[in-house]
Amino acid sequence: MARLTPEELLAARDRLVPDVLADGLSVLFCGINPGLMSAATGHHFARPGNRFWPVLHRSGFTPRRLKPSEQQELLAYGLGITNVAARASARADELSDAELREGGRLLAAKVERLRPRWLAVAGVTAYRTAFHERAAVVGPQQRTIGDTRIWVLPNPSGLNAHWSVATMAEEFARLRAAARDGEGEG
């Protein structure tokens, strides 16, 4: 991937990144919102320091580490990607609580329509705000959207120092086992 200039990144602010979706997915991964690199390239989790793609592979969801530009290949594995908030920003903390709540409402409607088996929200703080679940923790949630179960994952951003690639991969693998086995706890 060509290196983008600061001007090119700033020009991507507020751009939308198309979802990677299909009906009846096993897991629909959901980021908080696209970063500027994602908006500039049109690919989810595109910033080189983001750990989503390495963790997805290490946890066993994909047989090899995919590049962000290969995101459409996720559909062959029964996986997809969307975001809580569609607007791109340099940092997720630029989003207002109102944007996250509206994003949660729109996300719930999308999930009701597409009916994935699991919705996996990457970012506990955003999940708490978007779904009014102040006590939510990483892991499977009691809440469902129709028949879709929800699992909150750690945010794979390189800024999330609380989770290493190894511990994140363990949590993603718990979700993978639950999705494979059809159980709630994995």
UniProtKB/TrEMBL annotation:
<keyword id="KW-0227">DNA damage</keyword>
<dbReference type="InterPro" id="IPR005122">
    <property type="entry name" value="Uracil-DNA_glycosylase-like"/>
</dbReference>
<feature type="domain" description="Uracil-DNA glycosylase-like">
    <location>
        <begin position="18"/>
        <end position="179"/>
    </location>
</feature>
<dbReference type="InterPro" id="IPR015637">
    <property type="entry name" value="MUG/TDG"/>
</dbReference>
<dbReference type="InterPro" id="IPR036895">
    <property type="entry name" value="Uracil-DNA_glycosylase-like_sf"/>
</dbReference>
<dbReference type="Pfam" id="PF03167">
    <property type="entry name" value="UDG"/>
</dbReference>
<dbReference type="GO" id="GO:0016798">
    <property type="term" value="F:hydrolase activity, acting on glycosyl bonds"/>
</dbReference>
<keyword id="KW-0234">DNA repair</keyword>
<protein>
    <submittedName>
        <fullName>G/U mismatch-specific DNA glycosylase</fullName>
        <ecNumber>3.2.2.28</ecNumber>
    </submittedName>
</protein>
<keyword id="KW-0378">Hydrolase</keyword>
<keyword id="KW-0326">Glycosidase</keyword>
